[in-house]
């Protein structure tokens, strides 16, 4: 595994992000999911650096050691991504986003296509239909309960807990998961309030090539095949690809298959 450098970067959006970076070459920007962190990508980080890319991975606002904020909605975190690209002088990076980071990436592509060369969405957490308060509370409540429980445990206890759920994950993945759960602002769950607005309110078809990676229906992923079809109809430069035998966190469930799909797309 490569060892990236880390530094704090002050953004024009008013937040300061802890940012990891390593490698030389074309830029790749990695955007993690909710309650994740910049190091949640260690295996992909190493693969991309070894393949000749400069890789940048921030702790998002409210995550890791980045500053806390009073707004965690998709528009705000997408603005952070745009500001980070400018602040760090990234040259039209390939942007890869997981879950919340996938929605963040698509919002960035929709609003600032000039900043992005390609995008990869890993089971992005889109809201194709507007949800009411009751539906959002139904999703938020187990998240909040989980966070409260996890914060009572040590890092090693969290690793053991996650290993019981995902024994196939690497030691690095388990450690990253545990670190992330102990280092985020519980208010990041405010992001779920964005579900009151359907994604079609902000989605804009652009010419940026986009690869949407999603799961088989029985694996419990976020994105159904019919949404991929609807997105492609609106934006022909977007295509979908199923990664078999993985769940929502496919880059940990099967890093080889996930990384192979990523590398094929970035090199095309």
3D architecture notes:
With about 270 residues, the chain is an alpha/beta fold. About 40% of the residues lie in helices and about 15% in strands. It is built from nine helices and eight strands. Strands 1-2-4-3-5-6-7-8 form an eight-stranded mixed sheet, with helices on both faces. Helix 2 crosses helix 3. It is globular and about 45 Å long. The chain starts with a strand and ends with a helix. About 45% of the residues are buried.
How would you summarize what this structure contains?
With 268 residues, this protein is an alpha/beta fold.
In the predicted model, the low-confidence regions spanning at least 5 consecutive residues are: none
State the separation between the terminal residues, measured CA to CA: 25 Å
- Rg is 17 Å
Order of helices and strands: EEEHEHEHEHHHEHEHH
What share of the residues lie within helices? 25-40%
Number of strands: 8
Q: What is the count of helical runs?
A: 9
Oligomeric grouping of the chains: single chain
Quickly give the structural class. Answer: alpha/beta
Largest sheet: 8 strands, mixed
Report strand %.
15-25%
Strand order of the largest sheet: 1-2-4-3-5-6-7-8
Instruction: Name the shape in a single word.
Output: globular
């Amino acid at each position: 595994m490569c060892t990236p450098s880390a530094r704090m970067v002050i953004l024009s959006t008013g937040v300061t992000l802890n940012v990891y970076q390593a490698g030389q070459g074309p830029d790749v920007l990695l955007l993690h999911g909710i309650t994740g962190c910049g190091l949640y990508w260690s295996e992909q980080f190493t693969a991309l650096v070894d393949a000749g890319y400069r890789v940048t991975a921030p702790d998002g606002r409210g995550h890791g050691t980045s500053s806390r904020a009073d707004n965690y909605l998709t528009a705000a975190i997408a603005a952070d991504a745009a500001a980070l690209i400018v602040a760090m002088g990234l040259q039209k990076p390939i942007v890869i986003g997981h879950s919340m980071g996938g929605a963040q990436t698509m919002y960035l592509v929709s609003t600032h296509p000039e900043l992005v060369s390609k995008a990869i969405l890993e089971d992005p957490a889109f809201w194709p239909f507007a949800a009411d308060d009751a539906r959002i509370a139904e999703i938020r409540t187990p998240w909040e309960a989980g966070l409260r429980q996890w914060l009572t445990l040590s890092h090693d206890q969290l690793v053991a807990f996650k290993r019981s759920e995902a024994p196939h994950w690497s030691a690095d993945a388990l450690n990253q998961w545990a670190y992330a759960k102990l280092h985020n602002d519980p208010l990041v769950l405010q992001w779920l309030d964005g579900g009151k607005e359907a994604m079609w309110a902000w989605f804009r078809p652009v010419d940026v090539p986009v690869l949407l990676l999603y799961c088989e229906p029985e694996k419990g992923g976020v994105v159904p095949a019919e949404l991929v079809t609807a997105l492609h109809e609106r934006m022909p430069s977007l295509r979908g690809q199923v990664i078999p035998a993985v769940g929502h966190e496919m880059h940990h469930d099967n890093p080889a298959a996930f990384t192979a799909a990523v590398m094929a797309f970035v090199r095309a």
